[in-house]
Amino acid sequence: MEILKTENVTKYFGDFKALNNVSISVNKGDLTLIIGPNGSGKSTLINVITGFLKADSGKVYFEENDITNKEPEELYYYGIVRTFQTPQPLKEMTVLENILIGNINPGEEPINAIFYSKWLKFEEEMVERAFKILEFLKLSHLYDRKAGSLSGGQMKLLEIGRALMTEPKLIVMDEPIAGVAPGLAHDIFNHVIELKKKGITFLIVEHRLDIVLQYIDHLYVMFNGEIIAEGRGKEIENVINDPKVVEIYIGD
Ligand code: ADP
Ligand code: MG
Q1: Domain coordinates in residue numbering, the chain
Q2: Residues 77, 121 contacting (CB under 8 angstroms)
């Protein structure tokens, strides 16, 4: 069953066409991967999907709702979150605090602030949930460390933790294992597989196909702002051996 689709999304930066009629379809519960050489438009596409850039034309649908050009804050209510290519933790705050700010606190809304006991209860539940996530990601022993002191790989995990706090339906990730050692990269994808079992859908952009190939359900290849190849399951093998695909990677 389809959860997300784009229809003919086009995006210009000035006169430069970064996305040219891009249509993709993501099934619920799948790990859909987009690959392509640097500058293909992968980040631009997920920026449009997650509301960080506005499309010039085309549509984006999530669970049959038209979500084209909605703001990221609004997409959060639909159950869409994203992580960034470069993790953006608040470096002076602790690991736990960074996870906690992944969520919206009802105490911040004036109407709820009156009910202090409700707010305290909510805080307690949030800390509990944050610790469960930290345990899942094997970061709980670092809960009171400043986020700025984490390794690059740990920061990537922290980014995932922040996304999980919002209990999303769809997690969109831009190069989650860029610059991460192979061992930790597989750890990250094993976490993704565990979350997939809980019904979370993943749309991931990644450069390093060698590591992620074994985990994916559906593959798209982008080049020059267009989808040039696509396949699911058994077809994926054919996609990566497609001469068009091989050629752009040799040039990369
Ligand atoms: P990828 O993620 O596949 O490496 P991007 O989506 O980041 O590619 O970029 C696609 C193209 O759009 C590149 O040529 C890039 O230089 C250009 N581009 C990306 N963002 C901007 C921007 N904000 N302004 C102008 N050009 C941009
Ligand atoms: Mg990119």
Answers
A1: 2-87+168-250, 90-149
A2: no
Instruction: Report which residue type is found at 99.
Output: I
CB 41 less than 6 A from any atom of ligand 1: yes
* Domain covering 2-87+168-250 in this structure, CATH number: 3.40.50.300
Tell me the pairing of strands 218-223 and 80-83.
unpaired
**What integer best gives the mean pLDDT of the chain?**
89
CA of 68 to the centre of ligand 2 (A): 21
Two tokens, residue 37: 């050489």
Whether the CB of 39 sits within 6 Å of ligand 1: yes
Nearest CA to ligand 1 atom 21: 13
Q: Residue 215 and residue 232: Cα distance in Å, rounded?
A: 12
Q: Which of 33, 43, 228 to mutate to test the pocket of ligand 1 (most atoms within 8 A of CB)?
A: 43
Q: What is the interface pTM, i.e. ipTM, of the complex?
A: 0.98
User: pLDDT by residue (tens digit) across 69-96?
Assistant: 999 989 989 999 998 877 777 888 899 9
Which two three-digit tokens encode residue 163?
């996304």
Ligand nearest to the CA of 35: 1
pLDDT, tens digit (0-9, with 9 covering 90-100), for 28-52: 999 999 999 999 999 999 999 999 9
Nearest CA owner, ligand 1 atom 16: 39
